[in-house]
Amino acid sequence: MFLGMKELGLRLTVDGPVARVVLDRPEVRNAQTPAMWLALAGFGTTLPPEVRVVVVSGEGPSFSAGLDRRLIMGENADGEEPLLTLGAKPAAEVHETIAAFQAGFSWLRRPEIVSIAAVQGHAVGAGFQLALACDLRVVTPDARFSMREPALGLVPDLGGTQPLVQLVGYSRALEICATSRWVEADEAKELGLANIVVPAEELADTVKDLSEALLAPLPGAIRETKALLLGAADRPYEEQLKAEREAQERRLKELLASFG
């Protein structure tokens, strides 16, 4: 299945258990727009139940340079309002609007799918947060991450703050955000931002192999395991043990029913 969204700079496809999101604006290093975020949210809500892996990548030499700079600088771009105009609106409307934008990222963390970001070149701001929204990150040696929002007087608001802290710890996350510095591929691997660094010519094959490995176990087991891991940091140890017991009970019952 292919959803044609060329006018938005997206290619969204579903092929059996694998869905693909390709940011397709290489002429602007796959800069993102709010319209793209809303389209991604819609794609996430309409995924067929058989989809178990989602691969997110960028067309051309960059993953994503972040929000389209014209929208940051207060210009209208392709009929979209500049981001700064939100500041003149009532608080409830601002919150509702940003929540709709966040939904374009947060669906990638749902337990029933495992998401992979294939990152080459720049992953800046919203691009960094899109990579962070994914469960796994496969990157090339030229990959460069930067959280640019604080340098523009803004905060990262597309769901990237929690996974960044979970991956690298509070103090390192603060330093990365507060300085807006570049995190190169080797450091990203060392910090845990990247699962693996591979040559650019091996990126597609590595992601394919990883996708196939993720599809090998039974889907219910992966769904329950991801849910356990996502909640582990926020639960006391005894509650995590309880969650494991409950998840295992569900799996045992599902397996028993499948043999019945």
From TrEMBL:
PROSITE patterns: ENOYL_COA_HYDRATASE (PS00166). Pfam families: ECH_1. InterPro entries: ClpP/crotonase-like_dom_sf, Ech1-like, Enoyl-CoA_hyd/isom_CS, Enoyl-CoA_hydra/iso. SUPFAM superfamilies: ClpP/crotonase. GO terms for molecular function: isomerase activity. It comes from the Bacteria. Belongs to the enoyl-CoA hydratase/isomerase family. This is Enoyl-CoA hydratase/carnithine racemase. It comes from Kribbella steppae.
